[in-house]
Specification:
The chain is mostly helical and 263 residues long. The chain has one domain (2-262). Helix content is 78%, strand content 0%. The protein is built from eleven helices and no strands. Helix 1 packs across helix 3 (38-59) and helix 1 (2-14) packs parallel to helix 10. The relative contact order is 0.22. The model has no long low-confidence stretch (mean pLDDT 80).
Length: 263
């Protein structure tokens, strides 16, 4: 039960930070609780995203309702809602295809990776380091709004989100950085990044998470804790994300993980 509470807390808080919540969950499971299967650890991480999915749905309920209305009344919807709907639809299709292929390849290579905690820690450290470097490059202040999004933006962000299925690559960190580099305003980049997570997390749980995780009291507790901590922390952590440059933190964290792999 303690493991369930800890995993739920990690997911609930880390999801809103530009670090990999999935990578953090894999590290906690392998190093603290002796999980030997990388695929199962990733499946559990995907499942716990369902808790923060509901938290984000409540937090962005106005946007979610507007998107649902756009789905049923597309012709009469506003330009902003049409652009937002198109952006999320294309990005979700692209990231879903790429993520499915990567998970399939990772599953097939599981035995060859030997599934040791040192390999997992070192690999996550390298990926976190890459995330931090990309984030530190996203310094320019953009002016683009949702109405100015293009199909090219949707495809690019879909590709980036698809690769974020790998443990250690921060989905929010990479997508926010890419949107900033594409010239979007800070608030628009954050909004688009978190809205992008909703359909892909839901689809991922339908296709993978719900299938790979056995339902039990422990998994239910982990999911509930993930939801509660996600809902309580999303407001303050989103404000913090706007004020603090997390790229340096992610780089240092990645370096520490690489060092830990050799200790």
């Amino acid at each position: 039960m303690i493991e369930s509470v800890i995993l739920g807390m990690v997911q609930g808080i880390a999801e809103w930070l530009p670090i990999s919540s999935e990578g953090a969950l894999v590290l906690v499971q392998t190093n603290m609780f002796g999980e030997s299967s990388i695929t199962h650890a990733i499946g559990m991480a995907v499942f716990l995203h369902l808790g923060t999915f509901f938290a984000a749905t409540i937090y962005f309920r106005k946007d979610v309702l507007a998107l649902l209305k756009t789905l049923t009344r597309y012709k009469s919807a506003s330009v902003e809602n049409k652009k937002l709907f198109n952006f999320l639809f294309i990005a979700t299709l692209v990231s879903g295809c790429i993520g499915a292929v990567l998970l399939s390849l990772l599953s097939g290579a599981e035995d060859q990776l030997l599934k040791t905690t040192s390999i997992v820690t070192g690999g996550v450290g390298v990926l976190l380091l890459a995330t931090g470097v990309i984030q530190l490059r996203a310094r320019s202040i953009g002016e683009r709004a949702v109405e100015q999004s293009t199909a090219r933006d949707s495809i690019l962000l879909g590709v980036i989100q698809g690769f974020a299925v790998l443990p250690g690559l921060s989905r929010s960190g990479l997508t926010v950085s890419a949107l900033l580099l594409r010239g979007y305003r800070d608030d628009v980049a954050l909004r688009l990044s978190f809205l992008m997570s909703l359909p892909i997390v839901l689809a991922g749980n339908i296709l993978l998470g719900l299938r790979s995780v056995s339902f039990s009291l422990e998994s239910a507790v982990a999911l509930l804790v993930s939801f509660v901590f996600g809902l309580l922390s999303i407001n303050i952590l989103l404000r913090l994300a706007r004020a603090v440059q997390f790229g340096y933190f992610v780089v240092v964290f990645g370096i520490l993980m690489i060092i830990a792999a050799f200790v």
